[in-house]
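Collaborator request, handled under Task 6.
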Amino acid sequence: MVEVDGPGYGRACLAAIAALPPVDVIVFIDGDAADDLSAMIRLVEPIVDGRADFTLGSRVLGRRESGALTPQQVFGNWLACSLIRLVWGERFTDLGPFRAVSCREFERLGMADLNFGWTVEMQIKAARKRLRTIEIPVDYRRRIGVSKVSGTLGGAVRAGVKILWVIGREALRPPRRETP
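Structure tokens returned to the collaborator:
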């Protein structure tokens, strides 16, 4: 079991999940008010209807307020999604934080990253485990406050390096055989 006390995006997600009552679907969203919460039903419906295991709110496919994504975020998304497509054959347009996953499938993912690599780790593991995935266009606004990641050069570099490291680590990891 991963220790959930302490800093880090992945650690915060794991702590929130540990505090949940039994649920069928888990929705992830950042607390910066950039995502339009009215889109949540569109993320959850395909899972509840049995058409998907994992849905990703794509800021790239949706409407974005000018300046909502920095140039380094746009480039980083393109690079990471291109590498995922090249290695695992899964087409994503975004590493967006607004996403939903069935609780049963989430448990199969075995999420472990405690910080910047959380979103890319989830998408890679979803591709590796062949989860039925749908991208949903979502609108995206400028965030409230300054991001510790995309709002500073150091944060953007650290996040970019971590995301590329997770992609490399997972690409070199041998596939695991799943038991039914």
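The cover message to the collaborator said: "The chain has a mean pLDDT of 88. Helices lie at 9-18, 40-48, 71-88, 103-109, 118-128, 153-172. Please let us know whether this matches your experimental observations."
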